[in-house]
User: Fold these one by one.
Assistant:
Number 1:
Amino acid sequence: MKTISLNERDVREAVSMREAIDAVRGGFIGLAGGEFEMPTRTALRDGQFLVMSAHHRPTRSAMIKTLSVNFDRAPAIAGSVVWSTLDRLDQLIADAGAVTTLRTGAAVGVATDLLAAPDADRLTLIGAGGQAADQVRAVHTVRPLRHLTIVSTNTRRARSLADTLHAELGGTEIRIATDPSSAVSDAHVVCCATPATSPLFPESALPARVHVNAIGAFRPTMRELPDELLAGSTVIIDELDAVLEESGEIIHALQSGVITEDGLTELGTVLTSAPADHGNRTVFKSVGVAMQDWAIARLLADKFLR
């Protein structure tokens, strides 16, 4: 029996964003096909402590993640991901912060590849925290970017993020902004990665055709998107039970009567359906589900537990 422990650097060096996107895409398809046993996550202290688990029936493997979330520290996410299988005694333990940001970015990559215009190359990213870089990497992987606008009230953090991404994005033009409303006006793709408790911009600020990813709000008290955007868009979610329990945007819009549960479609369902025209405005709302962590953990297990 052996236990492999991986830190953030180990995870980053082992799994590329392309690999992560492919693995998470397969996971969403498996989720739609009933392959997973996946309880709604346990949230303590209003989401500052989280426990998530997933069992993949075909491989007899399971993942359990425990973490703490504190936006007043850096990094905000700390904890561990444990992967094991019934077929062997070995287990893998990986840094939860690296796995979480990577799998969240990967889900956005899957959704953007499916929903954004084929020629989309202008991304507006709102938020410059720990999730931000992988949001950009994921979108760039499926829609090579010519323009990136980073929106943050913390301009020093935004410039640091821009410096980090500059070498990775090649010739992409990067600019810094502080006003979300003006920054989204010419975007092809918008990524929201903030701990906001009220909408970041009005629906009217967006162009007629745009794809929006919202991953920052993961509790009922948090919101990044306005009701009007959800009402006028095709809304794709990661998993119905999860967003009904945890997504402030979805809960608020349902209570306001501007959308119904019938108007919410899980990403896995769209991936396994015939191609469709989803209209000019699409939204991917994700609170994050354990299957995504399992998908990254399985990649790591395949590489390190041989």
Note: The mean pLDDT is 96.
Number 2:
Amino acid sequence: MTDRSLCIAFHIGAHKTATSHLQRSLKRASAELSASGVMYYGPDCFRLPGNSLQALFGIRGGSAADETELRVADQLDLLRKDGHRLVFSEENFIGPLNQPHGRSMKHRYKSAGDRLTQLAAAMDQKIDVFLAVRRPTAFINSAYCQMLLGGRIQPVAVFQRRNPLSSVDWAHLVARLRAAPGVGALTVWQYEDYGALFAKIMAGLVGEDAARSVIPRPRHINRGLSAAAVQHVLAQAEPAPDEKLARTARQMMPVEDGHAPFDGFAAEEHAIGDAVYARQLTAIAKMEGVSLLRPVSG
């Protein structure tokens, strides 16, 4: 039975939109949040063996398993403790950043709405959803670097062909999330505005009062690769790449030391992607039931 005294907020990502920074900022304030009745759970919880949200709430084969019906209420109580608000953050829940083995990805997070619907049904609770979006060319660049950091080596041109800019359709994703049964309030912001919006994002996630205890981490968590590091990885990858090759190259030639960030796109491609991004944001802003956060101008 739905517990109207409980609120569930779920930061679903997307990947490469300062998710680690947000998660670590929340984790560092978890004791203060708990004292305010806000229980935070992130990747350090949900990526333990057998502890994914799907496993915790008995979601199997696209639906909640019947035999877990009684256990779900117990599971919510265990997570909730004496609190009134559950805050989750786990970008892997809505799908992978990249396909295994570098295969093509025409539509990103295509199962996100269905997965949230299944989770809401299993919990018998509405879930307020929080999502960050990012400039498409920068998102693809970051996804490529993440693939290299994971030990999968592929030429830039091949990756871009398998992951076209058209695969980054934020408006389509937000529309699917908005239409998904079980999704409550839906809040969206641009990665590019994350720093300016940090306090507002936290207020939405944990509540106005509790947000005062969440202080942003002072630095970036997961830096991308420099152009020199990517060049080094591609030159050294044959015949058998070392899984640590890209991570070592990032340490040797970091962006922080003045090395130019990797960029696999020409200026005209950025312009095309930015025009598409602007249209997507305009469409998102007009969607009923969606809050697109914007910095205060001036």
Note: Residues 62-66 have pLDDT under 50 and may be disordered.
